[in-house]
Amino acid sequence: MTIRVRREDVIPNLPVPSAPRAHVCVLASLNFPGINEHDAGLVTRFTRTALATLVELGASYELWDTTTPLDDPSAAADFDGLLLLGGGDVDGSCYGVCETHPNSYGIDLRADRDAFAAIAAAEAAERPVFGICRGSQLLNVARGGTLVPDIADYTLHHGGPGEPVFVDEPVDIMPGTRLASILGTDRVIARNGHHQAVDTLGHGLVVAARALDGITEGVEDPGKFYLGVQWHPEDEDGPGDDRMRLFGAFVTAAERSRRGTAAERSRESTAAERSRERPGVASQV
User: Fold this and answer.
1) Is the separation of the CB atoms in 100 and 216 below 8 Å?
2) Is 74 contained in some domain?
3) Does the residue 184 lie in any domain?
């Protein structure tokens, strides 16, 4: 695989908080098969903005790059939240499609499997999970959902040949969803450049946003912070307020998860202390 984006290219020049509100695992595909210079530029810019936004909101992070195999994807459970960024297409075999679509690009089945393992670990540990573009698609497939391999009428979603890939797309936010409460509006102008999208919803998920042509642009689990948006709020050419609302809600959820974990550890420690003070009494934690 050609390496076009290095880790040092995406790290923002900002001091990480010494006492962070939350410590976030950020899963990114800095490189993928067939990546070109244009894509590398987007990955670099978007990843740097995402990391900078976390820091600006008072969070720290650890960047996991699936360019190479992850040592232990299940360690995502040890963080306060999991953020999945964009990248290449999800391998169709992950959602029951045997033939690769001619317009597919950047497919890396090993990277997909690492991502699914991280998602499963974060979910099992009840951590908030937020996915962007490819990340949103991974969240749906991880729950058994499927994807549209290629959007035939793509004009709303990305530019045509010889045109800029990214477009400003109106996206309707579904009333009553977590996403609606985060954004505080029923429509956003989203920065989009995608040719795939969520098709059949994964288990327990609902549509949180739709394009004007009905394509799903956001998914969520109503019972927990498991949220994906198809567009790129981390594109600085888009609305900064929407980016801060989305990332802010995620960091707040991660902070709550951190506090909940600390409280649970405190209860376990207290129970253990009481058990030691009463010899012969078994601790039930």
Assistant:
1) no
2) yes
3) yes
Is there a domain that residue 284 lies in?
Answer: no
State how many domains the chain has.
1
Task: Give pLDDT tens digits for 129-172.
Answer: 999 999 999 999 999 999 999 998 898 899 888 888 899 999 99
- Does residue 157 have an active-site annotation? no
| Mean pLDDT, residues 23-44 | 97
Q: Which residue in the list 123, 220, 232, 255 is annotated as catalytic?
A: 232
CB proximity list for 88: less than 8 A, separation 6 or greater: 29, 32, 33, 34, 35, 105, 106, 107, 108, 111, 134
Question: Is there a contact between 115 and 58 (Cβ–Cβ < 8 Å)?
Answer: no
Query: What CATH code is carried by the domain that includes residue 33?
Result: 3.40.50.880
Output the six-digit token pair for 88: 């290449």
Residue 8 vs residues 5, 13, 62, 65, 250: alpha-carbon distances, Å: 8, 10, 13, 12, 25
Catalytic residue among 123, 169, 220, 234: 234
| Residue-number span of the structural domain to which 93 is assigned | 7-277
Domain assignment present for residue 2? The answer is no
Is 232 labeled as catalytic in the residue annotation?
Answer: yes
